[in-house]
Design brief:
The protein folds into two domains: 75 residues; 168 residues, 3-layer Sandwich (Rieske Iron-sulfur Protein), CATH 2.102.10. It is 23% helix and 25% strand. The chain has four helices and 13 strands. Helix 1 packs antiparallel against helix 2. The radius of gyration is 35 Å and the shape is elongated. The protein binds FE2/S2 (inorganic) cluster.
Amino acid sequence: MNPRHDVDPHEGQGTAHEPTPTIWPVGFAVGIACIFVGLIISKIVLVVGVVLTAIFGFLWIRDATRPFRGEEAPAEPEPSRALPPGTPAARTSGPDPGQGEIVRFPRSKFLEATTLGLGGLIGVIVTAPVLGFTVLPPFIKQGHPKIDVGAIEDFPENKFVIATYLLKPEDGEVSRRTAYIRNNGFLDESPSFTILSNRCVHLGCPVQVNGLPLDDEAKTEKTAGDNVVTRIPTAAAAGFGCPCHGGQYDTEGNRTAGPPVRALDRYQFEIVDGRLLLGQTFSVSDVDGTGAEAKIHTYRLAGPGQHVDGPEGWLYPVQPPR
Ligand code: FES
């Protein structure tokens, strides 16, 4: 018998069993695309993208690592090849290793895994710092510490006081902020304050009091945490105005004219040992009523120009915390 006829002439030319193509990479790519689109338009799309990426990524990795885990990859059915008449049946795979034989890990698999592993590692080393520096900063060290702006007697009832304070005393004057504070008296035996941010909700310019600041009665005080707080009482304020594009607000912070898209942001507050502490800021769509009885429609703090309610509110991208 001619020994050449015992060997499949196609062996070693790519006819060995190949893993079945899967849709996992496609699903993974769709998930990544949803994440990027969701970051811009909607949290729901973002969550769907994360779920798709996790599921398809897991399935893809599970399939790709089958050979390394000693599992047989599902194989495509091999197309039948017609052999010339009289040719002995060809051998399509090698013999099973006999007892005591060493089963060697193929060099090609080792090189493939090493190349993929090193490539992935280099990719992570190159992209992680870039991603970290571009994405993380808006998400860390945000928020508003509690700021002591004075004793509650320093705020006469039904008059706005312009209070300026240092958001971060360690950063100095560059961190100085302004709040408009009105003591509304008591509501059910609890002190009530209206505390408005001076940040215009059109594009962020500093809003001014439409009234006379009584500079002669200004007081500066060092409060907790080495903060330097200045309080300037005002004569009867008729609302607030923005010098940049003419936005106008009433004494509750409601927009009355111009391009702003909602009411002025407000501060949370608490009274501790008779002192007024400012807390986090939050956004407001509008306010019904006035003073202690006002009904305030509150939202998570939004950026200038950002709608917080209605259909326009759904169109804004996911925002980092402020
Ligand atoms: S920034 Fe205030 S009206 Fe434009």
